[in-house]
Specification:
single chain; 110 residues; mainly beta; Jelly Rolls; 5-stranded antiparallel beta sheet; 4-stranded antiparallel beta sheet; 0% helix; globular
Length: 110
Amino acid sequence: MANNYINVIKTLTGTSATGVYTVPNDKVAIVKTLSAYNTATGAATVITVQLTDTSATGTITWDKASVAAVTRKAFLQNGEVLVLDETDVIKLTASVANKFHVYIGILETD
């Protein structure tokens, strides 16, 4: 059983749902960290986290947060993790383009 730690670092450049991570075939992913930093200096902006379960052909909104200007929002806290199966997808939507920098820390395993 091979373990591989990876990270995803992305700026959300648009305002539509963007697939930021897809679990590779024959892998399970344990998401340990998911955070977004709002670089806007004005009003708070909103970020939405969606999860797509490809085996059930369904997408749900997992979390939605209004993030104050120049503030980081941590979505996984107090030991929470997300466990995703192969080909599942994390999608993020920003209410304003080019304002959110996202970091996701993931353990992929066979």
